[in-house]
Amino acid sequence: MLEVSHLRKVYGSEETGNVAVGDLSFVVGEKEFVCILGSSGCGKTTMLRCLSGLAPATSGQILVEGNPVDGPPEDLAYVFQDYSRSLLPWMTVERNVSFPLRYKGMSKQEAKSATADALDAVGLGDRTKAFPWQLSGGMQQRVAIARALAYRPRVLLMDEPFASVDAQTRSDLEDLLLGIWERYAVTILFVTHDIDEAVYLADRVLVLKAPATVTTVAEVDLPRPRDQITTKALPEFARLRSELLSALRH
Amino acid sequence: MRVAEKVTTAPSPQPGTGPVAGRSREGSLRRRALDWVPRLLGIAAILVVLEVCSRTGVLPRESFPPVSEIYGSLLGLVGDPGLWVEIGRTMRGWAVGLLLAAVLAVPLGMLLGASRRAFQMSRLVIEFLRPVPSVALIPLAVLVFGVGQDMKVFLVAFACFWPILFQSIYGVQDVDPVARDTARSYGLPPLARFARIILPSAAPYIATGLRISSAIALILALTAELVVGAPGLGRAIVVSQVSGSITQMYALILATGLLGWLLNTVFIAVERRLLRWHPSHREVAL
Ligand SMILES: Nc1ncnc2c1ncn2[C@@H]1O[C@H](COP(=O)(O)OP(=O)(O)OP(=O)(O)O)[C@@H](O)[C@H]1O
Ligand SMILES: [Mg+2]
C-alpha cells in the first residue's frame, strides 16, 4: 500500500545542506494503522512532505499503491501539522471540505453527500455554514479531518493532528479517528510525539531518530475496539509504553 | 453632520495632499459609534466659531463668508443640473482612469508577485518610474493628449497604477504556503489554484490598493481640472473664484470633500461585505 525504501532528503546541497531524512525504509500494509514516534526536529514532517509528493526526495523510492510518487498521489490525503492555516478563511466549513472534490472527478451530487457524510462523521454536521475562524481549535482540526475523509483517500497521512488541543478533546478525537478508520477502511500513517497516543491508536509503532531513520519497530497487539480507560490499564500497554520510552531516549 | 465634519479638511485642494488621503484608516464601527458624541460637539463648536468670526468681521468677510451661507449656496447648487454635470465629468475621469489602472496593474502585479525572475527584471524600471509625481507629467500629458478628458484619464491612471501594482505584488507574495500546499496535495490544477487560493488571498491587498487609488484618482482628476482647465468640478472652482463668487467657490470645495468622503465610504462598505472573512473585518469571536 505504502512502501518507502532508502528515502533520503537533504535541504540544500548534498555536501553542505541539512540532512532531514537520512535513510528511511518501511512498509505500511493495506488498512493498517501505523504511528511514527520521534522527537521534535527528527524529520517527521519532511518525511510526510516527501510521501505526499509535495517535496521531491533527494534519493530513494516511494510507492503508493505500487505507483512511484512524483507529485501528489490521487488517493492520498494529508492532514497538515498547521491545520488552522490549511483551512481557507474565505470558505465556509462546507466549502473547505468540498472544494477539492470536483477536481477528483466527483459529480456535484456525490461531492455534496460525501461532504455531509464526512462532516457528520466528525460531529460538525450542524456547523457547515460557519467559517473556520468562528470555530474552536479542536473543531477546526475536525474540519481538516473531514476534508481528508470526504476526499475518500486510500491512504491518510496525519502530522501531529492532536498536538494543540486539551487532553479531553484529544482523547475524544483519538476515539473519533479510530471509529473513522474502521468505517472508511483507510490506511493511516500517523505522526505524533506522544507515546500513549501512538500505542493507543496503532497496529504498529515506528520510532524515528534524527535524521529520520527507523530505530525501533513495535507491534501493538492490543485488542480492538480500544477504550481509553480499559486499554490503557492493560499490562501490555504499560510494557509497550516503557519499551518505546527507552527507545526514544537512546 | 458628517457633512460638517468635512468642512474642517476640505479647503486644502493642494495636489498630492487631498482631503481623502488622510481618512484611509478606518476604525471599527463600534468604536466609531462611541466616538460620536465628542466629535459632533467638536465640529459644532468649530462651525459656530467660524460663523461668528465671519459675521463679526474678525475674519475678512469677502474671503471667509459665513458657514451658513456656504451651506445655503451648496443646497442651492444641489438643485442645479450644472453641478451634477460637473460632478459627472470629474467622476468620469476618476472612473475611467481608475479602471484602466486596475485592468493593467492587477494582472501585471500578480505576475510579478508570482515570478521571482519577472520581479527582478522589472525592478529597476519600476523603481525609476514610481517616484515620478504624476503632476510633473502634466505638461507631457497636455502635449500628447490635449487639455480634455484623455489627459485627465492618463494622469489618473498613471497615479493609480502604482499603489494597485504594489498591492497586487504583495498580495500574491503573501499567500500562505500551507494554503498553497493544501491545494496542491488535493490535486488542484494550476488554474484552480489561482482562482481558489491565490486570488482570494490577494483580494484584501488589491482592495486596499483600489481604495487608496480611488482617493488618488479624485485628487488627480481635480488637479487636471484646476491646473489645466479640463472640464469638471475643479475648473468650476476656479471659475467661481475668478468671477468673485467666493461663497459658491467654498460650496464647490465642500462638494469635492463630500465626494471624496462618499467614495471612501462606499469602498469600505464593499470591502466589508466581500472580505468579511478577513481578520480586519471579522466580527469579534462569539
Ligand atoms: N524548508 C526547510 N529548509 C531547510 N531545513 C528544513 C526545512 N524544513 C525542515 N528543515 C529541517 O529539517 C529537519 C527536520 O524538520 P521537520 O520539520 O521534518 O521535523 P519534525 O520531526 O516534523 O519536527 P516537529 O516534531 O517539531 O514538527 C530540521 O532540522 C529542520 O530544521
Ligand atoms: Mg513536524
From TrEMBL, chain A:
Keyword Mitochondrion recorded: no
Gene3D superfamilies named among the record's database cross-references: P-loop containing nucleotide triphosphate hydrolases
Pfam families: ABC_tran
InterPro entries, sorted: AAA+_ATPase, ABC_transporter-like_ATP-bd, ABC_transporter-like_CS, ABC_transporter_ATP-bind, P-loop_NTPase
Lineage: superkingdom: Bacteria
Single GO molecular function: ATP binding
Domain named ABC transporter: residues: 2-235
SMART domains the record matches: AAA (SM00382)
Keywords for the protein's UniProt record, in alphabetical order: ATP-binding, Nucleotide-binding, Transport
Name assigned to this protein: ABC transporter ATP-binding protein
From TrEMBL, chain B:
Limits of the ABC transmembrane type-1 domain: 87-271
Region (Disordered) location: 1-26
InterPro entries (alphabetical): MetI-like, MetI-like_sf
Main location: membrane
CDD domains: TM_PBP2
Family to which the UniProt record says this protein belongs: Belongs to the binding-protein-dependent transport system permease family.
Name of this protein: ABC transporter permease
Natural source organism: Blastococcus saxobsidens
Biological classification of the source: Bacteria, Bacillati, Actinomycetota, Actinomycetes, Geodermatophilales
